[in-house]
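User: structure tokens for this one?
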Amino acid sequence: MITSSFEYHKPENVDGVISLLTEWGDDARVIAGGHSLIPVMKQRMTDISHLIDLGAIESLKGISIDGGTVTIGAMTTQHELISDEALAKAVPLIREASLQIADPQVRYLGTIGGNIANGDPANDMPGLMQTLDATYHLTGANGNRTVQAREFYEAAYFTAREDDEILTAISFDAPSGGYAYEKQKRKIGDYATAAAGVLISVKAGKCSAASVALTNLSDTPVYCEDAVDALVGSTLDDLAIKAAVKAAVDASDPVADTRGPVEFKKHVAGIIVKKAINSAVARA
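Assistant:
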């Protein structure tokens, strides 16, 4: 199928985007890489009469590392996340996760902002941002505001972003210690059956800090606080890791689909979380 007719806009600054969103309301949508929106438009599952392309807005692009704070523009592509050596040195977890997203053709156009803001529970970046405890920067008709990644997702495709707002940037503190992003999928380019991001810091032989988050195992990304509690303060022995894995699986709430029944997904989640924790511990 082909899309219904629409007017195409390509403003050169954020103010122009907000002006168009305010003027056209529900009839307008912004487009970044287009991998989620274009298929929906072709199937005529959404009625959009004004399409606002963010591709010309330079202020939405780029990667900045200032001291220990990393800031990434929403229109930065997955390929740019992979190829930026300074980012790979400061946060190797980003490169590891980005290399597991789709395929090179998609990564050349797909953006971190589109992956995050769409609210698709199968996307990798929302779960990764839970792991990094990222802050989302939003701009709308009422000005600028920030929302924590762990508070942004409300349900599948529903987020804290208002209709007249756009995501402009993502920021977080560069983590230290061990890291891992593990993902099980049916084939190259597929969404995850289960994926997990893990950060581990060790001091004096004990886990001093940790972060565990899940992808595509609920209708939102899942930050596993009980799994973190099981790890922090432990010597990261088998008993502590087993408790953390159980807590993460218990926090998941997958649904049956073409990737398998609920029981299978929970089984895979356990394997993936354990693998991610062990990898992060080894790197720590």
